[in-house]
Amino acid sequence: MNFWDYLGNRHQQLLTDAFQHASAVFQCMVVATLIGVLIGVLTYRSEWAGNLATTTTSTILTVPSLAMIGLLIPVVGLGVAPTVIALTLYGLLPIVRNAIVGLRGVDPSLIDAAKGIGMSRLARLFKVELPIAWPPILTGIRVSTQMLMGIAAIAAYASGPGLGNEIFRGIGSLGSKNALNQVLAGTLGIIVLALLFDAAYVLIGRLTIPRGIRV
User: Fold this and answer.
1) pLDDT given at position 213
2) Separation of first and last alpha carbons in the chain
3) 92 and 37 in contact (C-beta within 8 Å)?
4) pLDDT above 50 (res 205)
5) What confidence tier does 116 reach under pLDDT thresholds 50, 70, 90?
6) Which of 48, 72, 130, 166 has the greatest count of CB atoms below 10 A from its CB?
7) Of 144, 161, 163, whose CA–CA distance to 201 is shortest?
8) Is the CB of residue 178 less than 8 Å from the CB of residue 189?
9) What angle, rounded to 10 degrees, do the helices at 130-151 and 80-90 form?
10) Are 68 and 33 in contact (CB under 8 A)?
11) Is 86 within 8 Å of 72 (Cβ atoms)?
């Protein structure tokens, strides 16, 4: 059976796996974005706190994904839980780092002007600082998403959802007639999803970033 015949015969399962893969990455990115931006907001004013946040999240990223999921299995079991925890943790670094950089890069004169018209600290954060810091934050989200697309494939090791199941099945049956087709289908599916997500982020950037800031 050639690759195209394999896709035709397995398209329903592949679409299901692709949806689960995209859904897992999307949901984990939402959680990682909320946590990462919150950490950035809490630490960007302090040099040591910002460095601690960046160092901690970068240390998490050095743990091999297979080892991370393996360590989580005895704690939370198999399935979705270790996948969600691992992906969320791995997605933090680019978002935290870019949130800190973006917030520190806001022109102090703009903050002073906001103070001058009576804005509270919370109002300045949401109406001045975060909107200006949004472009680097969005870049961090894009980088995290691309990383998680690949890392999510390892979730199949813990019976997690996604296209990694197709890849692991192919690797587990090396020598069979469809082994290469399975690995190739899973890999190409992840690449396509990564490109679609990145295109969506480009569109979001065009819709949410004012032209002057983009320039």
Assistant:
1) 61
2) 51
3) no
4) yes
5) confident
6) 166
7) 144
8) no
9) 130
10) no
11) yes
Angle, vertex CA 193, rays to CA 190 and CA 197, nearest 5: 140
Contact 95, 36 (CB under 8 A): yes
Here the tokens at position 76 are 């939370």
75-100 pLDDT per residue, tens = 888 878 888 999 999 999 999 999 99
Q: What is the pLDDT of residues 63-80, one digit of tens each?
A: 988 889 888 888 888 878
Q: What is the DSSP string of 159-213?
A: T-SSTHHHHHHHHHTTTSTTHHHHHHHHHHHHHHHHHHHHHHHHHHHHHHS-HHH
C-alpha dist (Å) from residue 125 to 58, 111, 165, 209 = 25, 9, 43, 17
CA angle 13, 15, 18 (to 5 degrees): 110
Nearest to 162 by CA among 4, 28, 9, 2: 28
Which position has the token pair 């690797």? 171
The residues, ordered by sequence, that sit 6+ positions from 143 with a Cβ below 8 Å of its Cβ are 94
Rounded CA-CA distance 92/96 in Å is 6
